[in-house]
Design brief:
By secondary structure, the protein is of the alpha/beta class. 41% of the residues lie in helices and 20% in strands. The protein folds into 2 domains: 9-259, tm_1862 like domain (pyruvate-formate lyase- activating enzyme, Alpha-Beta Horseshoe), CATH 3.80.30.20; 308-382, Orthogonal Bundle (Arc Repressor Mutant, subunit A), CATH 1.10.10. The strands form 3 sheets. The chain has a 9-stranded mixed beta sheet with strand order 7-8-6-5-4-3-2-1-9, with helices on both faces. The protein has a 3-stranded antiparallel beta sheet with strand order 10-11-12, with no helix packed on it. The termini are close together. The structure holds iron/sulfur cluster (SF4).
């Protein structure tokens, strides 16, 4: 197999605090912000002890969560300084912060820009106050619009917005109105996620009690196809199943690393790291992470070596998520496998169903219809009996 460091790495910092938990969310976060100082100390200590492989530099840093914007800019600055002291962050690195419109204090956006944060991803989710209430968001539609305008005024020229579709009772025109409102704010990037009911969340419990009927699968599928068409007409090019950008330059450089097997280091509770072929992930929730830090134990909860067979499975799944698909020559060079010889029967089946984009033989990519069945299609590839060790 080829050496995996084919591009610079990414750095992820998990901020596990939110003002209040949203009804649909199962991410690692909590609403008790009294532990921010302890978290910052443990995080800075973890970053200070990082040992990146020699020769690996980083060109992205992503503050995710949770809600990183609950931290004051000087706290973000402290984390940034710790990263810069310990890890080679390249000039021109993409530095992203996720922000909740309900947490952006006046002046904070300008401070973040001055610290070098050059991309902001704002969790708008909806432009309807009723839908925001259903989701348990802390902000109003007006606050969402205001946050985008203030980010622009503070000098952010790379703004991403997150939206959620597929809510109960949502009509095609409701969803188009949401996308129209988002596009009218002129963001560089849009992420449109289908609402999912994660186990143990308040929304999943309400669904189980029969408080509301979920949107049926056929309608959710139509919303997805609508999204791709509607945003394409407004100049947003889809590059991943849920992600759309105005140009290649403003695609999320950081998230693309996850899909392209680039190395990354994650810090904070629940954060994942991948330095091929090793993957590990940190203790969670925050209390466990803090305990490990206080007793000088590694924050890593578990480690695994991603073997040859597993790497093939992941390369297929992550490749198919992207509209450019799997680059056949890269796949073959990496795994020493004849792609079409190995997966010929699956490819024929996908072609027959209209799920394979046949416009470019150098790539294996799904059509928008195929993207809807991504998980099932990935399982068809996984079911093929490919070798679990590289050819001699
Ligand atoms: S703000 Fe984001 S991370 Fe926090 S609870 Fe809501 S969805 Fe989850």
């Amino acid at each position: 197999m080829k050496h995996p460091f084919h591009e610079p790495g990414g750095i992820y910092v998990h901020v596990p605090f939110c003002v209040r938990k949203c009804a649909y969310c199962d991410f690692c976060s909590e609403d008790d912000r009294s532990r921010i100082p302890a978290y910052l100390n443990a995080l800075v200590k973890e970053i200070g002890g990082a040992r990146p492989p020699s020769g690996l530099a980083f060109d992205t840093l992503y503050f995710g969560g949770g809600t990183p914007s609950v931290l004051a800019p000087e706290e973000i600055g402290r984390i940034l300084a710790a990263v810069r002291r310990r890890l080679p962050l390249l000039p021109g690195a993409e530095i992203t912060i996720e922000a909740n419109p309900g947490t952006l204090a006046p002046g904070a956006l300008g401070e973040l820009r001055r610290l070098g944060v050059n991309r902001i991803n704002i969790g708008i989710q909806s432009f309807s106050d009723a839908r925001l209430r259903f989701l348990g968001r802390i902000h109003s539609a007006k606050a969402g619009r205001g946050a985008v305008r203030r980010a622009r005024a503070a000098g952010f020229d790379n703004i991403g917005l997150d939206l959620i579709y597929g809510l109960p009772g949502e009509t095609a025109s409701d969803w188009r109105a949401e996308m129209r409102s988002a596009a009218a704010l002129g963001p560089e990037h849009l992420s449109c996620y289908m609402l999912t009911y994660e186990p143990e969340t308040p929304l999943a419990r309400r669904l189980a009690r029969g408080d509301f009927a979920p949107l049926d699968e056929a309608r959710v599928g139509r919303r997805y196809r609508d999204t791709v068409r509607f945003l394409a007409d407004r100049g947003f090019v889809q590059y991943e199943v849920s992600n759309f950008a105005r140009s290649e330059a403003v695609q999320s450089r950081h998230n693309r690393k996850y899909w392209n097997f680039a190395p990354y280091l994650g810090f904070g509770p629940s954060a994942h790291s991948f330095i091929p072929p090793e993957r590990w992930w940190n203790e969670a929730p925050l209390g466990r992470y803090l305990k490990h830090s206080a007793s000088e134990r590694s924050p890593a909860a578990e480690r695994e070596t991603v073997g040859y067979g597993q790497q093939i499975i992941e390369a297929v799944y992550l490749g198919l998520r992207q509209t450019r698909g799997i680059i056949v020559a890269d796949f073959e060079a990496r795994f020493g496998l004849d792609f079409k010889g190995t997966f010929g029967r699956v490819l024929a089946e996908l072609r027959r169903k209209g799920w394979l984009d046949t416009s470019d033989a150098a790539r294996c990519a799904l059509t928008p219809a195929g993207m809807l069945f991504l998980d099932g299609i990935a399982s068809m590839f996984v079911a093929v009996d490919f070798p679990d060790a590289p050819p001699a």
